[in-house]
């Protein structure tokens, strides 16, 4: 009987301990496990030729996004200089500027695991560039 009570007690502790029972998403991950891999992956996506954003037909600038509860804390996101209606892309030729977005993994600080520094893997949509493409016709838009 004592062994059964101990099992019930341990099960209750497990349920009450949010870090193990209910992390923010997926599961708690120690910082050393993924930080280097995420930084390496992010740097590969952002290491484009130096001035490609100004040489492109659809120019863009990089905007700094800071989140202290995310790793990496700073992400530079592309912001298209032209709207979908023209600008550098010649709207007379039926061209438009379109943002290129990637879904990247980030580590989000998991407060449920306090006081240990733990993180949960989440995905964020980040605009990495802009392209100039033929504008879609009303028929194409209606078809999805």
TrEMBL record:
Transmembrane segments: none annotated. Keywords: Secreted, Signal. The keyword Signal applies. Its main location: secreted. It is found in: Secreted. Pfam families: IL17. Residues 1-21 form the signal peptide. It comes from the Eukaryota. This is Interleukin-17N. It comes from Xiphophorus maculatus.
């Amino acid at each position: 009987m004592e062994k059964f009570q101990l099992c019930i007690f341990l099960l209750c502790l497990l349920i009450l301990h949010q870090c193990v029972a209910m992390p923010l998403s997926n599961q708690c991950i120690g910082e050393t496990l993924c930080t280097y891999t995420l930084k390496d992956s992010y740097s590969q996506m952002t290491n484009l030729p130096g001035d490609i954003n100004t040489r492109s037909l659809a120019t863009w600038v990089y905007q700094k996004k800071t989140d202290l509860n995310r790793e990496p804390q700073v992400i530079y996101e592309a912001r298209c200089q032209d709207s979908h209606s023209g600008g550098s892309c010649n709207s007379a030729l039926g061209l438009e500027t379109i943002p290129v977005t990637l879904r990247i993994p980030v580590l989000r600080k998991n407060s449920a695991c306090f006081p240990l520094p733990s993180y949960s893997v989440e995905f964020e949509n980040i605009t990495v560039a802009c392209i100039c493409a033929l504008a879609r016709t009303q028929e194409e838009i209606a078809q999805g």
